[in-house]
Amino acid sequence: MAITASMVKELRETSGAGMMDCKKALTENDGNMEAAIDWLRTKGLSKAAKKSDRVAAEGLIALSGADNKAAMVEVNAETDFVSRNEQFQDLARNIAGVAIEAGSDAEAILAANYPGGASVAETITNAVATIGENMNLRRGVVLSVEKGAVASYVHNATAAGLGRLGVLVALESDGDAAALDALGKQIAMHVAATNPLAATVDEIDAATVEREKAVFSEQARESGKPDNIIEKMVEGRLRKFYEEVVLLKQTFVIDGENTVEQAIKNAEGSVGAPIKLAGFARFALGEGIEKKEEDFAAEVAAASGQA
């Protein structure tokens, strides 16, 4: 029997299972809806779907590197406890490995083959059923250079290449690879500490710059100074803003004196060639995810009829 998109949609809405799992269930059961639902239940996939509305803001940042290329992914779960589970650690580590070839797009990573044959999406669904928590791949990024190094850093690593905060730094150069990697790791540690918005001034979102200008202008006008002085005040405050949020203009935390840009320039002597910062990425676990605040006392009171 031909499996139509509407049939897959109906089963997905009924069971809550993933689209690919629903299609497979219908195929395995010749389009019989009830049999497909039972098939999902026996595989634990329907059970996994029931957990999908629970907030997953914990988990791991995982990094993987190969030659002049590295990938970083955020794989979320519901509790910090799961991040210490070896099965979950292997899952996150392998997904990062898959991302090296699949690229930065999360949907492409999910559709790619996980080691062993199934897709990453199917493997995550199976892990949800096995481990018992909602899990998802939230995002990924891949950095590469033709010549040079892509250095990585994990802050407070849970295991090799795994932790709650990860950074990748790509440096282009014909110079010594080991020296480049050492410099890249220092810059990655700096990025972990300072969380810059962009590598250069030109890369900062124009709306962000305009918003800062508007704030600085309003602050300057309150001083009562003439317009020409206000303009200079705004320019000065904007320069200060760039020094705080632009990576190359920040003071390098490793030496506390030079800017990152100057530190890279100074390193060219030991590396033996010019160096260009080709890019960076910083993932902090759960950033931007709205977490549900639990009031345990209120919950107990409500359960006992005291609320």
Shape: globular
Describe the sheet with the most strands. 4 strands, antiparallel
The structure class reads alpha+beta
Number of strands: 7
CATH topology of the domain at 55-144: Tetrahydropterin Synthase, Chain A
In terms of quaternary structure, the protein is single chain
Measured between the Cα atoms of the first and last residue, the distance is 55 Å
What would CATH call the homologous superfamily of the domain at 55-144? Answer: Elongation factor Ts, dimerisation domain
Question: Which H/E pattern describes the elements?
Answer: HHHHEEHHHEEEEHHHHEH
Residue stretches low in confidence (pLDDT < 50, at least 5 long) are none
Our count of helices gives: 12
Average predicted confidence as pLDDT: 87
The top-level CATH class of the domain at 55-144 is Alpha Beta
- Determine the fraction of residues in helical runs and give it as a percent range: 40-55%
Explain what this protein looks like in three dimensions:
With 307 residues, this protein is of the alpha+beta class. Among the domains are: 5-50, Helicase, Ruva Protein, domain 3, CATH 1.10.8.10; 55-144, Tetrahydropterin Synthase, Chain A (2-Layer Sandwich), CATH 3.30.479; 205-245, GTP Cyclohydrolase I, Chain A, domain 1 (Orthogonal Bundle). Helices cover 47% and strands 18% of the residues. It has a four-stranded antiparallel beta sheet with strand order 3-2-1-5. Strand 1 (58-66) and strand 2 form a beta hairpin. Helix 1 crosses helix 3, helix 2 crosses helix 3 and helix 8 runs antiparallel to helix 11 (260-271). The mean pLDDT is 87.
